[in-house]
Amino acid sequence: MMYKTKNNPFRRKHFKTFKINFGPQHPSAHGVLRLITELDGETILSVDPQIGLLHRGTEKLLEYKTFLQCIPYFDRLDYVSMMSQEHVFVSTIEAIGKIQIPLRAKFIRVIFLEITRILNHLMAITAHALDVGAITPFLWMFEEREKLMEFYERVSGARMHACYIRPGGVALDIPHSLLDDIYTFVIQFLYRLDELEELLSFNRIWRFRLTDIGIMTKLQAKSYGCSGVLLRSTGTKWDLRKQAPYEIYSKLDFKVPVSRHGDCFDRYVLRVEEMHQSVLIIKQCLDLLPEGPFKTDDTNITSPFRLDSVRTMEAVISHFKLYCDGFSLPSANLYISAETPKGEFGVFLVTDNSPRPYRCKIRSPGFFHLQCVDFLAQGLMLGDLVAVIGSIDIVLGEIDR
Questions:
Q1: CA–CA gap between residue 222 and residue 43 (Å, rounded)
Q2: Residue 312 per-residue DSSP state
Q3: Could you give the angle at the alpha carbon of 363 between the alpha carbons of 362 and 365, nearest 5°?
Q4: CB 339 within 8 A of CB 243
Q5: Which of 399, 397, 356 lies closest to 61, judged by CA?
């Protein structure tokens, strides 16, 4: 708005900034998000993220469920990185209960954790490109996501909310035919990645919209608690798979890609390179996958009821009681985190000798990354805000939990 001053109405003019609601259901938010954006013309002065429209009270709901009943809730937080989040919760249970995991189960977990990483990055990059205006990458790469979600379905029965990683191992063994199909996929997927880069990496419009936009420094990333791609794009080589190895990552040969400029284009490049490294990890796991059990034989944690064994009445009763009453964990409080596709996802679990969590606090990376939108967008044009949000890769399911 423009108005004239009383003292000198013809020579001096003042401009008032104005605020607009960016959202609450804007495509670039990938969820229900409201941004109160203060503008001077089309220049962004400040961005105030408002969450609460999606709030489901997950942490409180977990206190009323058994440990097994809690697992599906984690599939529904970041609904693009399903297994990686249920893995963190299950790992916390196993650490408190001192549950031993068979080696084959660890390999299977890592295979699907990296499949989940590819699923997430394909969505992050192509949805980001769609927000900026490129339609073709979204259509091409969703065909690859369909293949990966079919792998989900073949081991768990569900395309998205798998509930596959369980305390003591995994729900079902991975069939040999699926191993062959995963190997075939990772070989041809490298060619699909080349096609993706041909469309975007050297596209002058894509580079113009992303280069030097949303720059984050190393100090800012650490101050705001950033992790994952956002932290590594500033030059910090930090990946929990290397710094605090879990499962079998210490036995695998892979690199942690790092860049230094910290802008939107760097974050895109890192996600592409991480998919290359995920393919390398999956190939190693397929080559080294050992024979043996896929879950612990502790019947206090897992059911003795097997589809391929004699179904005795005792096994049926034990199975029924386990899934109705659950199992108890000793009194403890523990924080476990892992390198999920969006960054460090952690679970702080408090137990009290009961079959339900006493408290469960979730550390979701997107919640910290969303706070960075304000300083990343200051001084940019309104259209650049879409590019910034897309490069951060936020999903409101984990943020507004």
A1: 27
A2: -
A3: 135
A4: no
A5: 356
**What tens digit of pLDDT does each residue of 290-333 get?**
998 888 887 777 766 554 455 677 777 777 888 888 888 999 99
Q: Which residues contact 134 (CB under 8 A, 6 or more apart)?
A: 199, 200, 203, 205, 206
Amino acid in the structure at residue 237: K
Nearest partner of 322 among 69, 102, 86, judged by Cα: 69
**How far is 277 from 269, CA to CA, in rounded Å?**
13
Q: Give the separation between CA 43 and CA 40, rounded to whole angstroms.
A: 5
Fold of 61-300+329-364: Cytochrome-c3 Hydrogenase; chain B (1.10.645)
DSSP string, 177-245: HHHHHHHHHHHHHHHHHHHHHHHHTT-HHHHHHHTTSS---HHHHHHTT--HHHHHTTT----HHHHS-
**CA-wise closest residue to 217 among 275, 273, 259:** 259
Confidence (pTM):
0.90
Q: Give domain limits for the chain.
A: 61-300+329-364
DSSP H or E segment with residue 20 = strand 18-22
User: For helices 264-288 and 176-200, what crossing angle results, to 10°?
Assistant: 160
Q: Mind listing the pLDDT tens digit for each residue in 42-67?
A: 889 999 988 888 888 999 999 999 99
Closest by CA to 170, choosing from 283, 310, 293, is: 293
DSSP-derived letter for residue 169 is E
